[in-house]
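Supplementary Methods. Inverse-folding protocol.

Structures were first reduced to a discrete structure-token string of length 208. This string, shown here, constituted the complete conditioning input.
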């Protein structure tokens, strides 16, 4: 079903899937502070007639909490970014050398308030494939794709209480099985599952 969706159907589901919805929260608590705006690009591409999502693995640094993790390209909003799309495209260009002109923006997912107090807006875009990319090795160790159908198979993921059941910030976290030695989990896995939920919905009339 997922590979049978065309660009128009995906854009339609994105429009109907998040309109008028408040942002989701990673933790069931009052925020410690006002969340800082951020955005990620969720790049889609077709390979052998199948949709894939493009991910990065961050370069590892001692003491860096998020280094070495699988993620989507993205980061904090900066002065001059007009909206979440501008942030996502700028970050993708900086991190993996993706030309913004090669991205067809299809829509946005529901923003997510993370445990680290970022409000992340995922921006979905289609990119051509194959595509020569130039990752910034100071930030990105690897760029790779995972088939959307594999990501959509519930047998390939599980929900765990993380970091521990009695931890003050315990929450349910998605963990995927390893794909080609890469482990997708946490916020990026949550964004992936949110996207899959939107794609699985039927087209509905837009609000307004």
């Amino acid at each position: 079903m997922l590979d049978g969706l065309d660009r128009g159907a995906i854009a339609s589901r994105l429009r109907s899937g998040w309109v008028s919805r408040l942002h989701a929260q990673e933790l069931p608590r009052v925020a410690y502070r006002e969340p800082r705006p951020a955005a990620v690009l969720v790049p889609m591409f077709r390979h052998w007639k199948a949709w894939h999502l493009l991910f990065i693995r961050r370069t590892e640094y001692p003491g860096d909490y998020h280094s070495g993790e699988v993620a989507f390209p993205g980061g904090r909003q900066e002065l001059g970014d007009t909206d979440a799309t501008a942030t996502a495209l700028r970050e993708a260009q900086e991190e993996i050398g993706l030309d913004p002109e090669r991205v067809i923006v299809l829509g946005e997912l529901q923003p997510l308030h993370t445990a680290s107090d970022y409000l992340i807006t995922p921006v979905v875009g289609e990119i051509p494939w194959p595509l020569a990319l130039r990752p910034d090795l100071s930030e990105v160790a690897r760029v790779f794709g995972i088939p959307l159908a594999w990501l959509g198979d519930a047998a390939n993921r599980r929900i765990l209480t993380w970091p521990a059941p009695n931890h003050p910030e315990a929450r349910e976290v998605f963990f995927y099985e390893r794909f080609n030695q890469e482990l997708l989990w946490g916020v990026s896995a949550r964004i992936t599952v949110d996207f899959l939920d939107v794609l699985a919905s039927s087209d509905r009339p837009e609000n307004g």
